[in-house]
Amino acid sequence: IASGILDGEKVHFIVNHWPSRAAASPARERAGEQVRALKDSLLNEDSNAKVIIMGDMNDDPMDKSMAVALGAKRKPQDTKPHDLYNPWWDTLKKGTGTLMYDGKWNLFDQIVFTGNLLGNDRSTLKYFRHEIFRRDFMFQKEGKYKGYPKRTHAGGVWLNGYSDHLPTIIYLIKEQKD
Q1: Is 144 helix (H, G, I), strand (E, B) or coil?
Q2: DSSP alpha helices (H): ranges in 47-88?
Q3: Phi and psi, residue 91, nearest 5°
Q4: Distance separating alpha carbons of residues 30 and 49, to the nearest angstrom
Q5: Where is 24: in which H helix or E strand?
Q6: Continuous segment of H or E residues that includes residue 27
Q7: Alpha carbon distance 148, 142 (integer Å)
Q8: Which residues of 19-43 are buried (b: 16+ CB within 10 A; e: fewer)?
Q9: 177 has a pLDDT exceeding 90
Q10: How would you class 14 by CB atoms within 10 Å of its CB: exposed for 0-12, middle for 13-18, buried for 19 or more?
Q11: Residue-level pLDDT at 134
Q12: Which DSSP state fits 139?
């Protein structure tokens, strides 16, 4: 957890790397429950604080660890101020993800946040949009893994890449007073 003041507002960042897919789903579900309890504790201390949860969750937005255990909602209108919102559901549904496995995109690298970052009142920090950072240089150009994110190394061979995962970004905005 990294906590501090961002543009005059209390914000907590919870950075994660949940158990791999080699572990069964309940391991990641337990991680989701623990992070949700941590978020609740932080908000019990300061109900106005904003919480941003990010990392490699090793599950997609609709998987049980994210949707049920963590409780991250799909739609902003279903998200109360202390609930969690996950903007990545529809990104994956449209066929874009952060890593490929067996030729299929997954979206394990997520940023979810409390509902108090949603809405149109720009006098406080608010969520504006999200994206997967994708640049041509980040992709394998040839061979069996053409179109996959370019790894640093694989099978003991240096590939001079970046990662097998693409980074995710959220943008926050706030109205500036003159």
Answers
A1: coil
A2: 64
A3: -60, -50
A4: 24
A5: none
A6: helix 25-45
A7: 10
A8: beeeeeeeebbebbeebbeebeebb
A9: no
A10: middle
A11: 96
A12: B
**What rounded mean pLDDT belongs to the chain?**
96
Residue 159 has pLDDT above 90, yes or no: no
Q: What is the pLDDT of residues 21-58, one digit of tens each?
A: 999 999 999 999 999 999 999 999 999 999 999 999 99
The pair of structure tokens assigned to 45 is 């201390």
- In sequence order, the 6+-apart residues with CB closer than 8 A to the CB of 40 are 82
CA distances, 73 to each of 3, 16, 79, 131 (Å): 23, 18, 6, 18
Residue owning tokens 């640093």? 152
- Residue 113 host element (H or E): strand 109-114
Scanning the chain, the segments in alpha helix (DSSP H) are: 25-45, 64, 89-93
65-123 residue pLDDT tens: 999 999 999 999 999 999 999 999 999 989 899 999 999 999 999 999 999 999 999 99
